[in-house]
TrEMBL record:
Organism: Hyphobacterium marinum
InterPro entries per UniProt: UspA (IPR006016)
CDD domains: USP-like
Protein name: Universal stress protein
Lineage: superkingdom: Bacteria
Domain named UspA: residues: 6-117
Length: 158
């Protein structure tokens, strides 16, 4: 039985640092023969008492997440020549990420982008910095890419 191809995982969002993380992961995947996975997580809406509004918001969030993943997938495919896997989940970002890592043993590395804004590096990187971790019984290595890192600087380390 052949072992599944090991994957680098990038969490999709609209930030600039996401593009730096994606570029890094795509270059590493290309250099090592690994594949790439993009995860988009939709936070549940708080309009449960307004079912119609809640469902509309959910559909809009799904559409936006799909468009974002498609855009990121095209960007990654332009680098690697291979279409990355795309996955959408609904729920708390950290919980969805932990569950995915537990379920998919082919995920070998999580690549996160860190913001240089005064608002902090981002929720996942902040959780790591506080020592809260992100995973349960199956920890994986994590690479944090500074959002301000240029493509040339990423090329130099991949």
């Amino acid at each position: 039985m052949t072992e599944p191809k090991r994957k680098f995982l990038v969490v999709a969002d609209t930030s600039e640092e996401c593009h730096a993380a994606l570029y890094f992961a795509a270059r590493r995947a290309q250099a090592t023969g690994r594949s790439l996975m993009i995860l988009a997580v939709i936070e549940p809406s708080n309009f449960d008492h307004w079912i119609g509004v809640s469902e509309t918001m959910r559909r809009e969030a799904e559409d936006a997440a799909m468009q974002l993943m498609e855009s990121l997938a095209e960007e990654a495919e332009g680098i690697t020549g291979v279409r990355p896997d795309m996955l959408m989940r609904e729920g708390d970002l950290r919980q969805c990420l932990a569950t995915l890592v537990e379920e998919d043993e082919s995920i070998a590395l999580l690549v996160l982008g860190a913001s240089d804004s005064g608002e902090g590096p981002g929720p996942l990187v902040s959780a790591l910095a506080r020592g809260k971790g992100l995973f349960g019984s199956r920890p994986i290595p994590i690479t944090v890419v500074p959002g301000s890192m240029t493509m040339d600087a990423i090329e130099a380390v991949t």
